[in-house]
Amino acid sequence: MRLPKPAVLATAAAAPVAICVALPRTRARDVATCALQMWAYVAAYEMPHDDPEALTRRVRIDYPVRIDRVVGLGVPPTLRLQRMLPAPGDTRRFEKVLVWTHWIWFAVPHAATAYVLVRDRERFGRAAATTYAVFDLGAVVYWLVPTAPPWYAAERGRLGDHRTPPVRRMMVEYGEQFWKHRWGPLYSVLGGNPLAAMPSLHFATSVNAAHMLAESGRVEGAIGWAYAMTLGLALVYLGEHYVVDLLAGLALTEGVRALAPAAGPSFKRVARVVQAIEAKAQA
Q1: What is the DSSP letter of 70?
Q2: DSSP state, 166?
């Protein structure tokens, strides 16, 4: 429709507020509000890739490679891990586990937030606010500093040491094996912006989910942290993220959680304004 990007983003961002005015609060409305927030996030996440050539001209490729070489004492950790691999096309069982750990991430942050909603609704507001603040702030960085993942850098000859293969992308290899003809359409839906690696929101939101679950109980926390750590290994091993991407994601989550108490009063004032409008609309 060739609508201006600011208009699209503003409309999408207004939708969660609009539903809070239009409908009385229930758990169903809470879920719908989070869904609309994610709809706005997806628009912001994918929009830079509407013009792939322009995004390619802006993308940063080299700085995460240099940092990860330092972290890996001369060899990026992704390369170190992948040197243990079999030949391309032969994905071992534990590697399939890592791929599935990556795939199920799409549900994990929202499932953890929903668990808080069901288990302890009083904590839901803060849980949802921190979860989706991490998403939204990460999207801002994707716009300002588009950064390539390891597999992209390898395809362009910017990651490796002249040994082959420089980096395999097992998610695609196994995806084609497992999903067969459905893989192409599935990946086109989920991979809307391939140049959005810094920070790793996979890791950032999983760490936040682990924090939320730990506040619910020891067992929940153990599950949450076990998943987050396994995902961190998977993201680096599979060539989807650098270690520095994970560290940036961790810093983003911990920063959001640390600043939440200070930012809370301001957000509560905004909430009271929305609630006042809601009261008039429902009268």
Answers
A1: H
A2: S
Is the preceding peptide bond at 165 cis, omega within 30 degrees of 0?
yes
Q: Look at residue 149 and give its three-state secondary structure.
A: coil
Reported as a single tens digit per residue, the pLDDT across 76-95 is 999 989 887 655 556 688 88
Evaluate the CA torsion angle 24, 29, 30, 36 in order and state its sign: negative
pTM reported for the whole predicted model: 0.93
Which pair of tokens denotes residue 73?
A: 């004492």
Tokens found for residue 241? 């993220």
Which residue matches tokens 């869904």?
Answer: 35
Cα–Cα distance for residue pair 253/247, rounded to 1 Å: 10
Show the beta-strand stretches assigned E in 53-149.
none
What is the identity of the amino acid at 270? V
Residue 221 near residue 178 (C-beta atoms within 8 A): no
| Whether residue 199 has a cis bond before it, omega within 30° of 0 | yes
pLDDT in tens, 208-265: 999 999 999 999 999 999 999 999 999 999 999 999 999 999 999 999 999 999 998 9
CA distances from 199 to 7, 45, 57, 147, 224 (A): 26, 12, 19, 9, 20
Nearest to 89 by CA among 181, 183, 175, 190: 175
Based on DSSP, count helices (H) and strands (E) in the chain, helices before strands. 14, 0
- Read off the tokens for 209: 């989910």
